[in-house]
Amino acid sequence: MKIAVFSAKAYDRTFLSAANAAQGGRHTLTFLEPRLDAQSASLAAGAGCVCAFVDDQLDADTLSVLHAGGTRLVALRSAGFNNVDLARARALGLMVARVPAYSPEAVAEHTVALMLSLNRKIYRARDRVREGNFALEGLIGFNMHGRTAGIIGTGLIGMATARILSGFGCRLLGSDPMRNPAFEALGGSYVEVPDLLRQSDIVTLHCPLTSANHHLIDRAAIDGMKRGVMLINTSRGALIDTRAAIDGLKSGAIGTLGLDVYEEEGGMFFNDLSNSMIQDDVFARLLTFPNVLVTGHQAFFTVDAMTTIAETTIGNVSAFEDTGSPEYEVCAD
Description:
This protein is of the alpha/beta class. It has 12 helices and 13 strands. Helix 1 packs across helix 12 (about 305-325) and helix 4 crosses helix 6 (about 155-165). The longest helix has 21 residues, at about 305-325. The protein is globular and about 60 Å long. The mean pLDDT is about 95.
């Protein structure tokens, strides 16, 4: 099958080509640098499958162009699918597949790396030492041991994070519509989100983005948090109202903020903009805070995860070609 791979980087070519070769090179891959949207969708004409990433825009207009060009399968090389109009896909007869799990540990380990870097001011200490400044003022942190960590979303990634934090000796609180017995077996306790926010020294988000939890962390939620809380988001950017978070940072309600995702990251993350001016004033303001650490959606980015993503994506395409259905289909509600 012909596969048009959008938002393709050199590493996508490496891992997807290797996964395809492992299946005898049965598919023809075309790697396209542009982000997928209604304007670029025509580049996929003649491809039965489009392979898209988290910041590609698969709205009704884009899906209509893809369908008209012969696309019958959208293979997401991601777990999240909030960027896809599933109802429109179903109406057009387009199947959508995803990678439901690739490496929960990769995201969890990056999550905790953000916590440790913020807590112990690693990024500031590095810069100081390089300048010959070995003073300790302004670098004080706190023991993770004994602190309360609130985990919103206790699926695979949330559980991987919980296991690490349990090893640090943190008290674990969780909030999830679906209780995970493994979380409770680890010593975690489930509470409602307001209670979790009120009690937690650290709050970390590991839930999918839905219409119901858009801006889950808004002004009211921040007002209900323990003052000086550490807030971490390696899930989806729009779970946090960024403007409200900025106000929380200014007031001291949020003590430290670690982000690997941003609600308006499309067209910015995954690209080298070092020779350009950042046009997003809200994001630029965020970067001025000394107690904020932002990485560019790299939590998933390990050799292990990329290998699994590529193998599962190619597997979805092969299953669709063989049986008419991908292995991991995403269905509209």
